[in-house]
Amino acid sequence: MSYTKDTSERILTSLAKYYGEASRIKIFSAHLSGVSYENIGDEGLYFLRQISNNGKFSVFTTANPMGADIYDNTFGIHDKFIEKQKEIAQTLIKLGAVESFTCTPFDYFPTPKPFSHVSWAESSAVVYGNTFLNLLTNKESSLSALASAILGETINSGLHHQKNRIPQIGFKIERIKNEVEAGLYAYHIAKLIDVPFSINSYKPMTSLMKKAFSGALGAVSNVSVFRLNQVTLHNQEIKPSDLKGEKMELSTDEPGEMIILGCPHWNHYEIGEFLSKLGNKRLKKDCLIACYKGACQRFIEKNSTYKFTKKHILFFKGACPVFSPLLKELGVKKIVTDSVKAAHYYKLRGIQVNLKTINQIINQEAQ
Amino acid sequence: MIVASIKGRGLVEGIVRGEIIATRQALSFLGGVDRLTGKIVDQKNDLYQEKVGGKVLYIPKSVGSTVGAYVIYAMSKRKLGPKAIICKDADSMLVTGCAISGIPLIDGISFSKLFNSKLYAIVNGNKGTLDLLDEMNNSDQTESLEIKS
User: Fold this and answer.
1) Quick one: which H or E segment has residue B74?
2) Domains in chain A, ordered, with CATH?
3) Residue A276, SS3 per DSSP
């Protein structure tokens, strides 16, 4: 057996042991995490090189954002990083991944029909896929999703079974007002329980709220599915006042030096909605929007005369500014964002965050 | 001398001996541990600034990013990884990260069983046993006293 298949077998066998020697099941797609050179370093790159020497993905495979925009290094991230990041991207493409590099693969790439088994490893996409697309996936590790992409199968356990997806408790939330609140509700719920739950609210979530909630939940919890407006035996109300402590934990009043949006990645509709709300105003500081390369292209194709630089808007294409040397290289230590997921990880990286909604950003950070 | 022996579930095989460092808080390997130094950098964790290298690391569970498996692998390649990981609840990140790095992993052990975190231990990933020792002595017997956890 080749090193690639042997290693993949070893990974899935260890996982089967964890799930109680469960059997395997065919998957329709895989989504890989562990793409940023910032996260996996030379050791991860070496591992991927070894895997790519004698193997190929056997199912449709997308991949997470990189640590830098390798298409257009506007920010001048150092050459060594760009070179290594390009090699990771090329290695994954050589293995058969589509050139996706996004944490929201469902926005642009074909997703299988509901109740299909997939093997996804981006925590926010796992929550989103299980909840809003009715896909069946466990929160795979970077390594198990890679092994699944090679072998075309995963372990038939956990969230692949309907009985493990049933909400155990319902949280009554009158209405989620914006994407920051959505993230904070998820952050709060993650501290309360460790089982699937239902959000019972009369007002539907917008696309940004769905992404914000999924992103925050995936970042701080191991719960990878929730439901909307389902009947549950146990119920509890959560009020906006319950979120004050969560916001204080993550956010400061410090004015940020830069605005960072697109966590999880925005699509071209979400970019368009933000710019439409911004109208004739111009942001007072640089605003970076992280997105799939194609999202940026689609927006530009439709709005070729839009003056991004005049508005202080920059794109970070196919990349994630959180797991990137970007802020360190720019010397930025305080940022503004609307993402609770980003706030959580930035805080771990010693960056101060001021959480503001898009509307607050437009009202307070633009003129 | 063996102070107690605790039975858990062996998930990744291997037998090692080392000093235990233990935390009551769940740990995110990505963002919570520096893969270049093996140091815990999550300020909220009570092992903040401790190095996991060469230690038997106890965590109740891991949380957060799925990329933690690569962090475990990278630390191990740099010889900065833990000798073994003991936890209450394992997950796919811990299992696959440890499997690919050859780090013995046992789950099903609660923090309260480690009544003194300054203890040493013999970890047997094959049998899923954790023998607690009061000192690091190579002549200690490894036969278990089999206390049900």
Assistant:
1) helix B68-77
2) 3-162 (3.30.499.10), 166-246 (3.40.50), 251-365 (3.30.499.10)
3) helix
- C-alpha closest to that of A30 among A165, A113, A147: A147
Say how many residues make up chain B: 149
Compute CA A209 distance to the chain's CA centroid, rounded to the nearest angstrom.
13
pLDDT tens digits for range B24-64: 999 999 989 999 999 999 988 999 999 999 999 999 999 87
Q: How many CA atoms lie less than 13 Å away from A332 in the CB half-sphere? A: 23
**A14 vs B35, B77, B99: nearest CB:** B99
Between chain A and chain B, the number of residue pairs with CB atoms below 8 A apart is 106
User: Is A118:A29 a contact under the CB 8 Å cutoff?
Assistant: yes
List the domains of chain B with CATH numbers: 2-133 (3.50.30.10)
In this structure, are residues A124 and A214 in contact, taking their beta carbons and an 8 Å threshold? yes
Residue A136, amino acid: L
Interchain contact B14–A (C-beta under 8 A): no
User: A178-216 pLDDT, tens per residue?
Assistant: 999 999 999 999 999 999 999 999 899 999 999 999 999
How far apart (Å, rounded) are the C-alpha atoms in residues A170 and A228?
Answer: 9
Q: Is B11 helix (H, G, I), strand (E, B) or coil?
A: strand
Cα A142 → chain centroid:
13
**Catalytic residue flag (residue B76):** no
Neighbouring C-beta atoms of residue A195, cutoff 10 Å: 13
Ordered alpha helix ranges (H), chain A: 3-18, 37-53, 79-95, 123-132, 142-151, 179-192, 207-220, 244-250, 268-278, 293-302, 326-330, 340-348, 358-365
How far is Cα A173 from Cα A193, in angstroms, rounded to an integer? 16
Report the predicted TM-score, pTM, of the whole model to 2 decimal places.
0.93
